[in-house]
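Example 3.
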Amino acid sequence: MSNQLPAIVLLLTLLAAPLCSMMRNGDHAWKLAVSSAWLSVVAAFALLQQVWGGYEISYHMGGWPPPWGIEVRIDELSALVLVLVTLFGSIVLSALRESLRPIMRSHRHSLYYTTFLLCMASLIGITITGDAFNVFVFLEISSLSTYALIARGRDRRALTASFRYLIMGTIGATFILIAIGFIYMVTGTLNMADLAERLPAHADNRVVQASFAFFTIGIALKVAVFPLHYWLPNSYTYAPKATTAFLAATATKVSLYVMIRFVFDVYGIEFSFQQMQLGLLLVPLSIAGFLIASLTAVFQNDVKRLLAWSSVAQLSYMVLGLGLLNIDGLTASITHMFNHAMIKAGLFLALAAMIYRVESSKLSDLAGIGRTMPYTTAAFVILGLGLIGVPLTAGFVSKWYLISAALEKDWLWLAVLLIASSLMAVVYIGKIIDAAYFKPVSASHAQVKEVPPIILIPCWTFALLTIYFGIDTRLSAGLAGRVAQTLLGVGS
Amino acid sequence: MFTGLFNYWVVIIIMMSGLYVVMSSSNLIKKIIGLNIFQTAVFILFISMGKISGGTAPILAEGITAYSNPLPHVLILTAIVVGVATTALGLAIAVRVHEAYGSVDEIEIAAIDAADFDQETPAKPAEDTTS
């Protein structure tokens, strides 16, 4: 049983999805979806335990040995992303039923859970597969289900946002397909471990270099690296309520994982950073990214859009850590991938709870919400502090590593810029706190009540996890540090 | 140079035409057509790389020594399915956009959104017309 876990963790959600679509009763479909999702969390933790300490699992689909068959490969990095996707996805899914109720008739809920589960299953697939072409297929499945999830938003602008994302996402994914085709032409293999062995011999081949360029552009679109983030703010703003929490937590993070996996493992550091000078591209772009996105967030009046812009800024931190190419930077990148997924999912979920009652995410409509919905707002504040990077929250840990990475390079100016960007986060989170606690409650929202526990508990779970991972960093930064050492090839 | 790499030149021309249509056209349907042309170029790229001159289908038979590589062809079958799904979803969203805005032109839609924004009226929720 336990040696079949790599297949089980994927199949749980993948098989539950079509079953859900056949159910007419939304409540039954939700129960099935939630139970399969939480079972996959258990499987993910079991896998993490198996690889804990730097081990690897190689599972041969259908018993065909690689490089001929399709290999599922799990190491510590993929196990961490696996936990991220399944755990945060399941928490959001638990709150989803209640938050869907006002926007959709209940017999259509089951189709929504189907799409959600498909998205989750494909993200799991991307994380665990050891086959380059599988990455493309799963990436497309996850993108297609994401477009469908976003298009279900209540505002009609959700449709145009989703369409825009569809065009850009498809171009990005097709670029990745071209990249995979090129390296297949040169090496004749699609297995990622096999590719990693064969590619260094072809480092001077123009085809491999073109493939690297196509891959970088394609995945940068998916990660929303500045200036390819154009699709993100609208998609996050108009996606229906709790769905944004799931998308913000998982989709871009898994794309970032693919980027790390290909840049460091498949193409190799020497090729990516010395021959192709990827750092020269990523570092300036991500610096511009976090400064411009943080500044834009400060001037937003819609909290959902504000958080979406803040996501662009936070993603730039992760890409920056990757581009700095030292152990602290990569540790920061991976830790922040995990921490930010948790914090942003919690923030969007708490916001969804407020929208559930207030029916708006405008700052003016949220005035005084700290008094009408004290528990939700308190969770939001804790998560907001995590986003800023206040000590004893998870956000502090990853920012600490990022600033040490900048100092290690003797780039004092970069550390200053990072702190400046954090100050902008203080401003935009402060704006929300100011509206929530210090503005009078408007008459039309005086009757607003606290949300039901089924939404409140997930919000608080994220808030408490944010504090927990600010104190106990074995799972986040501890693991990330080991992974960073392995990826950079120092130590063991 | 040109004749030896004929397929690849075709791929580049088709790919760039597709990308150009996606970027230059403001009509959502035309964008999807452009996207399809773009993806078709990638299909041709994959199919070309599996073919060797004089090679035949990979079925074992008397007197045949050269076989084409079937793997890229199989891969591209999957990619075609993905492409069809993308087109279907894109068209479905375009239909919904037309229902909600009465237009499938990006510029007109942007103008409608801007007008909504000026009036400070909340945008109409997209009606659930499918059920």
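Chain B has a mean pLDDT of 83. Chain B has one domain: 6-119.
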